[in-house]
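Student: I would love a firmer grasp of how sequence relates to backbone shape in proteins. I am handing you a single protein, as its sequence and its fold in token form. I am told such tokens are a discrete way to write the fold. I hope you can help me see how the letters and the tokens relate. Take your time, and here it is.
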Amino acid sequence: MKTNESEIIDGATSIITTAVDYALSNLSSSTQNNNFSVTTAFPNASNEEFVPYKYRPETYLVPILFSIIFIVGVLGNGTLIIVFIKHRTMRNVPNTYILSLAVADLLVVLFNVPLVAVVYAIDSWPWGQTICSASEFIKDLSVGVSVFTLTALSADRFFAIVDPLRKFHTQSGGKRATRVTIAIALSIWVLAILCGMPSLIASKIKELEFKNVTFYICYPYPEEWGNEYRKTMVLTRLVVYFVAPLLVIAIFYALMAHHLIRSARDMPGEMHGAVRQVKARRKVAVTVLAFVVIFGICFLPMHIFFLWFYFYPDAENAYNSFWHVFRIVGFCLSFINSCANPVALYCVSGAFRKHFNR
């Protein structure tokens, strides 16, 4: 199948296949011996000299970074899961949600991170259709579980702080709280699975031909479904995985802050027990807020790039070195999120830090 250079850049929009332009550079450098004229992969820079694959710093830096993500992600998320299983005192309502986050992150670290690191080092998708569909699905599943769980955590912290004396919201949680929390966590996974189904169904191996060289990419937007499908999916993912959840979280935290300010002024001095409970829950709320901020920072650049690329009329011609670097940074940040939460938890939670050190 013939394609032009703009289609090649378009093919890079999948998070898992963002490295397609690097694969192109590898192909192009390998065709120099066949007397092909080699130019940059950027559509608006056909007169610039092409930088061979082996001379690009990201060819080496990105796999190294992903190796670090893999090690930190497995160690951090794996330890968090083990601590939760081994220590009964860690099995409370917020930690149940945090366990769900850790499982989703560990899934991405174990499955997607090695695939992406390898894609940066080779010129074509080597694993076939099944792995292609699974990789895109697991990536969306993890993002969904993460952001929906953060939303549930924010709601839990709001009600725990607003009504600290109710047994349902005590730190130990009780049997009812445990059942409800597990049900919500499982519902989040079901919802995330449903949201990830389009990627599972639509992702295909796409054949591209550039300067008489054929290679393959894992691509989540079938050509026969048209450009409107791509735009619709970009907007849908922005709203479902980013804007709507963070807006709900912001509302909960605004109400929480209002309540804390008012209660600090109005709470009688003799309610020392309630004051201690509010302080403890406020500390957990700060931890959850740290997770939310990390999530927002890690995924905002990728959403900005997708919006620009698909909705700016002249994006293919305007794609330049700035957007190239911006996309690499956003791509890496989206995977750094999978190993960041245990690090944040280690910094703010004395209990987890104690068990982790042991």
